[in-house]
Amino acid sequence: MEIKTYDKKNDRIVFYNKKANVQFWEEHWRENIGSNQSQKIADYKNNRFILKIVKNYLDDKNSWILEGGCGIGGYVYCLQHAGYNVVGIDNAEKTVKAVKECYPDLNIQRQDVRKTSFEDNYFSIYFSFGVIEHFYKGYDEILSEAVRIIKPGGYLIISFPQISILRRIKAELGLYARDKPVDKEHFYQFALNPEKVIKGIEQYGFQLVKKSQYDGIKGFKDEVAIFRPFLQAIYDGKILQILRRIIDIILKGLSSHMALLVMQKK
Question: Which CATH class name applies to 15-163+182-215+258-265?
């Protein structure tokens, strides 16, 4: 059962559930891949989300792209199929092995985002979605490695759960437990203050290019239980997708679950 508390000192919401260690991700991705792993990965082939991001910030297809925390490698598959030089890394050994058995030519490797084997100033784009929030001790090691391997003028593009307006209201009203000691054995993730994250990344020599947010439906259904059954059906695609897009636009400013930052290395 998921439990949330508000850490006022660090201005973040702490999610307790299953501990987000390597074993957790092995099980998570095994369930995600299932018996039809080839099709699950191939479904990413024309993913507009990642293709749009890369096209906006990469002019030279000969440059290299890195995904930190690639999971089953769907985005890597998409970009590799589109002709980009891309590599994905993940620390879940069994997951990487299963994906490689399915797609031997897919360029994914078992590596830790906190310490990689890549050369300095190698990547033009380093993207990592839904990763930094799972590190209880913080993400400074990830940023330190990122600034080392990204080229000057290159981009760090990350997303993470944020303290949305709705979450901020709940925190201020005391609807989360305040200042409860973190239970390390059941720590899952943080919802972070985007402005604090930006300032932290800037200290590593990056400057903000763009800030956006998305997943308004998820942010609302996860925080307002009474609407959860209805919105969950929409979120899972059991109701017309056009309705999902409309509701997501309406809720975006209030309850977006995720923040996305584009930061450029000076």
Answer: alpha beta
Residues 116 and 98: beta-carbon distance below 8 Å: no
This prediction's pTM: 0.92
Residue 68: strand pairing partners: 89
pLDDT tens-digit series, residues 103-115 = 999 999 999 999 9
Q: What is the pLDDT of residue 220?
A: 96
Q: How confident is the model at residue 49 (pLDDT cuts 50, 70, 90)?
A: very high
Residue-range domain boundaries for the chain: 15-163+182-215+258-265
Backbone angles phi, psi at 222, to 5 degrees: -75, -20
First-to-last C-alpha distance (Å) of the chain = 43
Concatenate the DSSP letters of all residues of 177-220 into one string. EESPPP-GGGEEEEEB-HHHHHHHHHTTTEEEEEEEEE-HHHHH
Give CA separation, 221 vs 1, 218, 230, 236, 237, in Å: 16, 5, 9, 12, 14
Beta strands in 75-114 (DSSP E): 85-90, 108-110
Q: What is the pLDDT of residues 174-193, one digit of tens each?
A: 999 876 666 778 899 999 99
- From the list 101, 98, 106, the residue with the least C-alpha distance to 74 is 106
